[in-house]
Amino acid sequence: MTVGLGFDEQQRKAVIQCSRCGFCRAVCPIFDVSKRAGSNACGKMILLREVLDGKLPVSEGVAQALMRCTTCMSCTVNCPSGVEPQEVIKAARKEMVGLGYDNLFKAMGEVVEKYGNIYGEDERYDWGHKKGKAPYVLFVGCVGTYREEESVAETIRLLDLLGVDFTMVDEVCCSGVLEDVGYHVKEEMARHNVQEIQKTGARVLITTCPYCFRVFRDHPSYKDLGLDVKHITQFLKDFDFRVKTERRVTYHDPCDLGRHAGIYEEPREIIRKIAANFVEPERTRENAMCCGSGGGFRGTFPRDSLKIARNRLDRIIEETGAEILLTECPSCLHNFRNAKLRRQKIEIYNITEFIAQLYREGASREKEAA
Amino acid sequence: MSLGQMRELVGIVGKENFTDTLEELVPYSYDASVNAHRPDCVVWPESTEQVSEIVKFANDRRIPLVPRGAGTSLSGGVIPINGGIIIDLSRMNRILDVKIEDRYALVQAGVVCDDLNRKLAKFGFVFPPDPASSSVATIGGNVGSNAGGIKGAKYGTTRDYVIGLQVVLPTGEIMNTGSRTMKCVSGYDLAKLFVGSEGTLGVVTEVTVKINPIPRHAMTAVATFESLEDAGKAISQTMTSGILPSVMEILDKVTLKSIKENTDIDLPEAEMMILTETDGFTREEVEAQMEVILRLFKGNNPSLIKTAKDERERVDLWKARKSAYATLARISTGFVLDDVTVPISKIPELLVGIQEIAKRYGLVVATYGHAGDGNLHPQILYDEYDREQVEKMERVEEALFRLAVSLNGTLTGEHGIGLSKANYMMLEHDAVEMAVMQSIKRTLDPNNIMNPGKMSLEG
Fold it and tell me: Whole-angstrom Cα distance, residue B353 to residue B366?
């Protein structure tokens, strides 16, 4: 008797619902670079079905295949059969870990627990912003804090310029990403974040990271938070910005903000206020192609992750002719910036970072004029 | 296959273009049909020369070879039923040349239909065959299965557009056949022989296709009918009226009921819904054709007629048709999607017959499809984990094929014979014809290495 996955009837049905039409090939970022039938959702549903039917033993190979998914949800949006592959895959990853197929995220979990961030960094960057009581809390998250500090500095500057009375906290990783890679949110860390945030007496929690946003808003470990959780694009959409750009601007929908959280309009409302020349890529909104960094994919398969980001950049440049690519996700930003080649003539910013820079440019012009 | 043989293959394509890892082979054991069998390995060639070497290698050692595009076959066309090597052509996906002035495009076999059409659209042109899987289906796969689609009645199928091919023959030789011209009667039309040959005669590596200008205007209408006879008359009168609609799709009562019950699309109860479109290069031309259709529809007691005034309404009218497959796929754990085709006037008889068969075996069969060319898609719903239902499904299929052939129809209009219909070839083709097909197969592929087990060619 081989060891199988402990899927319940509902999970089994989700797997066999796949009709193998293969339509997910057209939208899977990993298939796009690999052209291997096992890399898109349909291939993984076939694997899982054979495992569930007892035709294929659970193996390291199955575990590895399941890791090849950014959980970008593009397949779900385009699946005629109504399968939600990223949910099936996340559940299967947990089962695989339970069966002893520990992936490299076991180490990441330990690192998160020890250091409070996914990178195992000792020192947390401090932007020197105030901590303590305020009506708003800004939560930055790991990628912003340890990999895109300068971008976050600009976001903070923008909030200051707009007169937002916000505080920052002694945050640790929200640990939500562990749910995607076979593990669970670390309750102790969730409690720490909840306590730190509540201490500020704030009414609204603002996140720059759409993944943290989803975790704070939706994960049961954060149910006692008691604050209104807003992604920074939601928070800023009604603000007036006194700056504008004439340059051609486009926008990349982060999977976590768009398909996963349903936030498409807010970032666009902000961009329309500051950019007269705003063009959409061909694949946009719910059909936006993933940047290749989600679901633990960047950590496990860095080369393919960069290749996906590079391809996305190539297509965006070709389709829009834009000089500026905006997004509002530290992971997308980080992956695009790492992937960008010299020949790819496009500047990449988070929206908030870009607006802060427009203010800076405006100020220096005024100074020159004076 | 032995380890040594695998090593030889790696020598041809390189390590990154080869796999024999079990977990990678599993997805290559399936397509969109009910068939399954493991290959021994998969290769992703990057050039015609590599394909040629792979084929020579396989032919020398009598190893089965199955060329594969996107693997969307609904008939088991790419199942390696005897094991062997899958040649996945997805990495040969370059559009080599677009010659608008000469009205053709030259592409590698792994180019995806929609990718070609995105490129052609920039010039106002299109490669017309439009299978539902066009977002993923490759041109090579289209050639193998002679893919059609919704606009078949007006614009034909893949065969009507293929003017030239590069094929690696089962012996490994590279053959260039056909021409780059709109007309050509120079020798046997070998390119057309390979269209629809399901990979049994060689590996297509490059395809030259004719392209059409995209019509600038279209008009859409929907009508429902309480009686099959009336709907049938409306269709055949339209198709003989002198105008040629670009779309003439139908949805039967079972399909309409499933959509109504499982989606938020509002549909009237009816025996049949017809969705039709006219297209052309001037608004007047399109409207004049639609006027004829609407007049003929109105003369056959429709319970409802709607025309679309703008793009939003057009999308709305298409909703039911577009959701048919998905709705049926969602309400059943398993299904078989067939593609029997009959002369247009026999559509009502076919639909009545299908429901009699469904009733006889106690399975749900929902039918929709392309009435303009008589190509219908009965979707048989069943539970593939229930042995009794599997048997019933097989009986329903057999009865369906017998019915289609008895109406002077064919087993398959666009999905191909593959494995699913191989056993029924003799229903449609007599011994003389089968012998000719088998002899062509033997001549080109004496060792029967190319996609064995398909189309009942082994005698």
Answer: 12
CA distance A238 to A243: 15
**What tokens were used for B376?**
């219908």
> Angle at which helices A351-369 and A265-274 pack, to 10 degrees?
10
Contact list in B for residue A9 (CB cut-off 8 A) is: none
Task: In whole angstroms, give the CA distance from residue B417 to residue B455.
Answer: 6
Give me the mean pLDDT over the A258-278 stretch: 98
pLDDT digits (tens, 9 = 90+) for A134-146: 999 999 999 999 9
Using CB atoms, which residue from A16, A20, A36 is nearest to B24?
A36
A226 touches chain B (CB under 8 A): no
CATH architecture of B215-324: 2-Layer Sandwich (3.30)
Domain B3-90 matches domain B332-446 at the CATH topology level: no
Residue B316, judged by CB atoms within 10 A of its CB (0-12, 13-18, 19+), counts as middle
Q: What is the ipTM of this complex?
A: 0.95
Any A CB within 8 A of B254 CB = no
The fold adopted by the segment(s) B332-446 is Alpha-Beta Plaits (3.30.70)
Mean pLDDT value across chain B: 96
A22, B24: Cβ pair inside 8 Å? no
Query: Which letter, b or e, does each residue of A315-335 get, where b requires 16 or more Cβ atoms within 10 Å of its Cβ?
Result: ebbeebebebbbbbbbbbbbb
B3-90 belongs to CATH 3.50.40.10: no
Structural domains of chain A, with CATH? 9-98 (1.10.1060.10), 136-236 (3.40.50), 249-369 (3.40.50)
Nearest to A325 by CA among A308, A342, A337: A337
Tell me the domain boundaries of chain B: 3-90, 92-213, 215-324, 332-446
Digit-coded pLDDT (tens) for B128-157? 999 999 999 999 999 999 999 999 999 999
Closest to A269 measured CA to CA, from A292, A236, A237: A237
Asked if B27's CB is within 8 angstroms of A47's CB, the reply is: yes
Whether the predicted model's global pTM rises above the 0.80 cut: yes
CB A149 within 8 A of CB A216: no
Length of chain A: 370
Tell me whether residues A22 and B114 touch, CB distance under 8 A: no
Which CATH topology does B92-213 take? 3.30.465
Q: Using alpha carbons, select from A297, A253, A370 the residue that is nearest to residue A32.
A: A297
Token readout for B113 is: 């239909």
Give the tokens for residue A300. 């496990």
